[in-house]
Amino acid sequence: MIKGLKICGISDLETLKYILKHRYPPKFIGFICNYKKSSRYVEYDKLKKLINIKKNGINFVSVLVNPDDKILEKIKKLNFDFYQLYDVNPERTKKIKEKYNIKIITALTIDTHKDVEIYKDYHEIADLILFDGKGYEKSIGFEHKLLNSIPNSVNKMIAGNIKIEDIQYFKNKDYYIDLSGALENEEGKKDLKKINRLLNFAIKNEA
User: Fold this and answer.
1) CB count, 10 Å around CB of 177?
2) Nearest partner of 178 among 40, 12, 56, 13, judged by Cα
3) Residues 115, 30, 141, 146: is their CA dihedral positive or negative?
4) Which of 41, 64, 94, 120 is deepest in the core (most CB within 10 A)?
5) Domain architecture of the chain: domains with CATH
6) Is 36 within 8 Å of 44 (Cβ atoms)?
7) Are 94 and 72 contacting, i.e. CB atoms less than 8 angstroms apart?
8) CA–CA separation, 49 and 46 (whole Å)
């Protein structure tokens, strides 16, 4: 069965509170902290207030694309459990993990099997490996069969244009599932009805 869900790209308090209070909450909630190209990006002052909240056992994830020291120093005392790192080499990933005493999700963007194999450089450093599409701020999928060769011992999460209905196809996989765009309305804002549908649908398809 799937290990759990991550809802990414939360940027407002109403949506955050709704998820935190849901009967079937996700395992992770992600916040875009330094990637300004994304419509889900949250400015630091707003972010600081937004996540200063009781998490009810849910892991808060700071999503960071090639973060510099300035942003890392800025967020180091915020209410995060994980840093999700894009475009950070293994050596720097290890330094960030040790310096800030934080759990790490290494995010790899996938197009070919060669991209998948990069996980081997990180699996002893990262707490979780996220296999994502190449879109960054856009939801672009990839062929999930490329992950079939990865050992069960690797703690895995997948993202990339995954729809709510797709959850049923992963119920025999040992993955965490990461959704964002599929939970938004036409204006690109998180839709509470879609979030509710996801969380209830996932519970029904766990077995």
Assistant:
1) 22
2) 40
3) positive
4) 64
5) 4-204 (3.20.20.70)
6) no
7) no
8) 5
